[in-house]
């Protein structure tokens, strides 16, 4: 007696949430005049009619899910329809989805899988062609277009020997295009460039080494010495003796900052302390024309 308000009510409520109005469906059809006619009508509806209705509803929900899956797949494939050069595999897949063609979809899918499996080979081919193109653009273009012998799986011959032949042929053609005098001029120019670059390299390396081993106090002392020498000027002022002493003191700190010092004898006397040798070698230019004052500089070096 409690079944209509219990189990049946729960069934109709759940069916309504899924879009089925069981009360309305159960009310359809005539009720035969028999004992317990309403109960018999509901029993017949539940046993004979309702299973078909439920099957139909289940199939409708499943169909909607399949359509949604098709729609999502088509939307996911749309950006690649024209962006990728994958033959017609993706358009064929989309067409099979829209037409519900299982056989066409299977074939298009297999074609796409086969193409994707060759992506690495295609990328390798592109990379190799780009490398060849930098040094042999005509050869790369022939391979890219698969023209003649360059369209086969295997190269037409020994690639290494062919490359060596081509390089030597270009070198000989280039040499034959120049006269002997032009080649000699080029050789002389290259030799002069080599001498100049070597001299620059030696100079730059020497100065770089000197700069690296020169300390900050030495640099400061060298700047101070230069400023002091400027103040001495012609050497006639009252402060000259004191400036000379200061210059000698600064020179003792900064002399190693410069590997070679070139200056007049008079400046040497002002700048250096003669108590101990300071240099390895000393050269007096035009020594035969120098006076006795130049002899004082001999105390500055071992040789």
Q: Determine the strand fraction and express it as a percent band.
A: under 5%
Task: Please describe the biggest sheet, giving its number of strands, its sense, and whether it closes into a barrel.
Answer: none
In DSSP terms, counting alpha (H) and pi (I) runs of 4 or more, how many helices?
12
Question: What is the helix/strand order?
Answer: HHHHHHHHHHHH
Counting DSSP E segments of at least 2 residues, the number of strands comes to 0
Structural class: mainly alpha
Low-confidence stretches: none
Overall 3D geometry? elongated
Q: Please state the CA-atom Rg, rounded to the nearest Å.
A: 51 Å
What's the average pLDDT?
Answer: 82
Helix amount: 55-70%
Span of the ends, CA to CA: 134 Å
Briefly say what this structure is.
With 303 residues, this protein is mainly α.
Task: Explain the overall architecture.
66% of the residues lie in helices and 0% in strands. It is an all-alpha fold and 303 residues long. It is elongated. The model has no long low-confidence stretch (mean pLDDT 82).
List the main descriptive attributes of the protein structure presented here.
12 helices, 303 residues, mainly alpha
